[in-house]
Amino acid sequence: MRHDDAVAALSAADNWHKATFSGGANGGCVEVATIPGYIGVRDTKLGERSPVLAFTPTEWKAFLSGVRAGEFDV
User: Fold this and answer.
1) Could you give the count of Cα atoms lying within 13 Å of 28 in the half-sphere of its Cβ?
2) What is the spatial order of strands in the sheet that 17-18 belongs to?
3) Kind and range of the H or E element at 3?
4) Given this model, what pLDDT does residue 35 score?
5) Distances (CA, A) of 35 to 48, 49, 58, 66
6) Are 21 and 35 in contact (CB under 8 A)?
7) Closest-CA residue to 30 (of 65, 3, 4, 20)
8) What are the φ and ψ backbone dihedral angles of 57, each rounded to 5 degrees?
9) Each residue's pLDDT tens digit, 12-44
10) How many beta carbons lie within 10 A of that of residue 63, not counting itself?
11) Stated pTM of the model
């Protein structure tokens, strides 16, 4: 599946759920959904209007490893 097709399929998915560690005082929440071969992430506050980021399982694992390692801390 092409990346653009995955984004479209994820945008239409009905299995979006709020991420377990999402939240905080600033309202920073994300939702996650899956389709075969892709994981999608969007902004909870925007819901269906949110742009969708689509990751392959390999990309998703690399992203989570970076988060756990503090690579994205500000």
Assistant:
1) 4
2) 17-18, 30-35, 38-43, 53-55
3) helix 3-11
4) 96
5) 16, 19, 14, 23
6) no
7) 20
8) -55, -40
9) 999 999 877 666 656 668 899 999 999 999 988
10) 16
11) 0.79
Three-state secondary structure along 33-54? EEECCEEEEEECCCHHHCCCEE
Closest alpha carbon to 18 in 30, 33, 35: 30
The residue count of the chain comes to 74
- Residue 63 tokens read as 């992203």
Query: Given the structure tokens 């309202």, which residue do they identify?
Result: 27
Least confident segment among 5-9, 23-27, 57-61 = 23-27
Give me 44's structure tokens. Answer: 């909870």
Sole residue written with tokens 């970076």:
66
